[in-house]
């Protein structure tokens, strides 16, 4: 295998930024002739380039219009998960559909973990494979943010704007849906509610968990339980069995994705309990997996493909040197269905 260690030792735009006493964004704007940097700062940055010996790599030239014609999207996690967990694939479909009308194509790759993903970004940038990347599923102390900042690769990040640094954030606007879901459950009589989360190291898991606990307090739900899970069905089934065999079992359970929700429904039935008469269930995703369940699964709808299209528009605009601000097309919302009812009652749908 080729050894790229010598590439990592080359001066980066982070070195230029430190020497010039400016942000990496200012360096990137200057090197790519984008507006927003004063003439004096530009001169200082160009002097720093000469001093530290920075030279453009192939992908750096791409930003100035002779690029790879590709947007990168690396999905970190077990490969077998992508065949059944549709969120990333739906997002990628939206990205690819929007990019089909541009001069860029989507370059999709699966990797085992975020460390491999960060290394992949270095290789893509050094070899000129992509012009920009899309990043999702932020972690605490996420190594990918530092790598993208160091090498100066343009990126749009789906997640918390507070931790993306100079990269371009795309806020999701999903948290009000948790208050909506808990408020609805409280209104129809639920007082014991559980939330089976995704991996706890993901920042959006922490944000949803905080939103869940806040909403329970605000709606007077005194018994609330959070169980850290994984985006896999068998794990969610075991958690569901443990929750529903407890002395004070929840009358409603919210799952962090559709695979978990369907596994929870199967586990509920295996215990001889009825959905929704004994337990109400809500999925955070609204893919075809849960739309065709019986009873129909109540979901939090987010318009994932539309978000993918918006992110693609942002990436194309970013590479064109335009000012880019992120934001969701619309907030997420609760779609009650047959899996939700008053405790011991019939299912109830709410028209919006």
Automatic annotation (TrEMBL):
The keyword Metal-binding does not apply. Residues 332-352 are annotated as: Disordered. Residues 11-65 form the HTH lacI-type domain. Signal peptide: none annotated. GO terms for molecular function: DNA-binding transcription factor activity; transcription cis-regulatory region binding. SMART domains: HTH_LACI. The keyword Transcription applies. Keywords: DNA-binding, Transcription, Transcription regulation. Pfam families: LacI, Peripla_BP_3. It comes from the Bacteria. This is LacI family transcriptional regulator. It comes from Virgisporangium ochraceum.
């Amino acid at each position: 295998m080729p050894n790229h260690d010598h590439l990592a030792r080359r001066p980066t735009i982070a070195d230029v930024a430190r020497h010039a006493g400016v942000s990496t964004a200012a360096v990137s704007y200057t090197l790519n002739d984008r507006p927003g940097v004063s003439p004096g700062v530009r001169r200082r940055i160009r002097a720093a380039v000469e001093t530290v010996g920075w030279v453009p790599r192939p992908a750096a030239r791409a930003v100035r219009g002779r690029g790879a014609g590709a947007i990168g999207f690396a999905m970190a996690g077990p490969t077998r998960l992508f065949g059944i967990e549709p969120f990333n694939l739906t997002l990628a479909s939206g990205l690819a559909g929007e990019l089909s009308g541009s001069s860029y194509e989507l370059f999709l790759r699966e990797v085992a973990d975020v460390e491999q993903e960060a290394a992949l970004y270095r290789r893509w940038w050094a070899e000129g494979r992509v012009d920009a990347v899309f990043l999702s599923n932020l972690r605490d102390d996420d190594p990918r943010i530092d790598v993208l900042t160091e090498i100066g690769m343009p990126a749009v990040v789906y997640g918390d704007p507070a931790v993306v640094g100079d990269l371009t954030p795309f806020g999701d606007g999903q948290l009000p849906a948790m208050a909506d879901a808990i408020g609805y459950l409280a209104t129809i009589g639920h007082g014991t509610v559980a939330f089976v989360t995704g991996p706890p190291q993901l920042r959006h898991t922490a944000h949803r968990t905080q939103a869940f606990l806040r909403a329970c307090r605000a709606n007077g739900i005194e018994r609330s339980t959070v169980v850290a899970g994984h985006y896999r069905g068998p794990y969610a089934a075991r958690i569901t069995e443990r929750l529903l065999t407890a002395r004070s079992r929840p009358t409603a359970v919210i799952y962090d994705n559709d695979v978990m929700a369907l596994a929870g429904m199967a586990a509920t039935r295996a215990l001889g309990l009825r959905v929704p008469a004994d337990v109400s269930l809500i999925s955070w995703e609204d893919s075809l997996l849960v739309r065709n369940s019986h009873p129909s699964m109540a979901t939090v709808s987010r318009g994932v493909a539309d978000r993918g299209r918006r992110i693609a528009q942002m990436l194309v605009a970013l590479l064109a040197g335009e000012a880019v601000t992120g934001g969701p097309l619309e907030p997420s919302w609760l779609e009650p269905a047959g899996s939700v009812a008053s405790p011991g009652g019939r299912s109830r749908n709410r028209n919006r």
